[in-house]
Write a structure and sequence with these properties.
Layout (H helix, E strand, L loop, with lengths): L13 H10 L9 E4 L5 E4 L1 E3 L7 E3 L5
Length: 64
């Protein structure tokens, strides 16, 4: 059973997302990276925010 949640958003400017995260002093990793989740499950995302609790936040581009 997967515990990754997918939500639909309307973020249209990746550079603005990166700048906003940086302005908030949130560390993020660019490019395709593994996202860690429940019970060591992983998936890939284009932008990853690592968390100390081993449950990462990832943003994936869907092509639109």
């Amino acid at each position: 059973m997967s515990h990754f949640s997918k939500i639909q958003t309307s973020l249209k400017d990746l550079d603005l997302l990166k700048k906003s995260l940086s302005d908030l002093s949130i560390q993020w990793e660019p490019e395709l990276n593994r996202v860690r989740g429940y019970k060591d499950q992983t998936t890939f995302a284009n932008l990853v925010i690592r968390q100390d609790n081993n449950y990462d936040i990832g943003f994936s581009w869907n092509g639109f």
